[in-house]
Amino acid sequence: MKRIFYFTPFLLFYYLFGQNTKKFDDYDGMETFFREYIRAVDGKNINEISNFFDHDRCTLHYGTNQPIVLRGKDELDDLFRKWTKSPKSFFTKTRIDKIEIAPVWDDPDTKLCTVDALFSRLDDGGRVISRGRSLYHFYRGENSYPYRIIKRWKKWKIYMITDLALENENLD
């Protein structure tokens, strides 16, 4: 009995202060979600694209322009409507050439994640018409009880996109 009494504090200490060996485990889910977003962009479906974004506040930073902060679904939809009429949307498909998924913390409870994507825009014949690299910032919220018992996390949402400079890489 005395052994259990002395052993219990060690177990409690290990449980409370032991190193958490669990890692972020949603790489596949994040990649699937990102590829669904790219399919929506390729389809130029404004409502579908908009559903991937945080409607409260979203920041887009392209090139050397000032960052655009959008507050609300209407502002997002308006921007996407303008984009669908611009030459930048004149592509048929996006090919993901390289993708790197990085959670902000390597922990299963992390709520923030980035996707560094190197991509090519293709025309009807499959020829590359442009290349780009962007860093997509995602967050996910927790569901509230009692639904949280069944599914802990809400869907990932994009809250920021930043263009990155292309390095000289052979993508063909």
Task: List the keywords.
about 170 residues; alpha+beta; about 30% helix; globular
Describe it for me?
With 172 residues, the chain is α+β, with helices and mostly antiparallel strands. The protein has a single domain, classed as Nuclear Transport Factor 2, Chain: A. Helices cover 31% and strands 28% of the residues. The chain has a 6-stranded mixed β-sheet with strand order 2-1-6-5-4-3. The longest helix has 17 residues, at 27-43. The chain is globular, with a radius of gyration of 21 Å. Mean pLDDT is 84; it is low at 10-20.
Structure at a glance:
The chain has 172 residues and is an alpha+beta fold.
The proportion of residues in beta strands is 25-35%
Domains (count): 1
Nearest-angstrom radius of gyration?
A: 21 Å
Structural class: alpha+beta
The CA-CA distance between the termini, in Å, is: 70 Å
How are the secondary structure elements laid out?
Layout: H1 2-17, H2 27-43, H3 46-50, E1 58-61, E2 68-70, H4 73-84, E3 93-103, E4 112-122, E5 128-139, H5 147-150, E6 157-163
Parallel strand pairs: 1-6
Antiparallel strand pairs: 1-2, 3-4, 4-5, 5-6
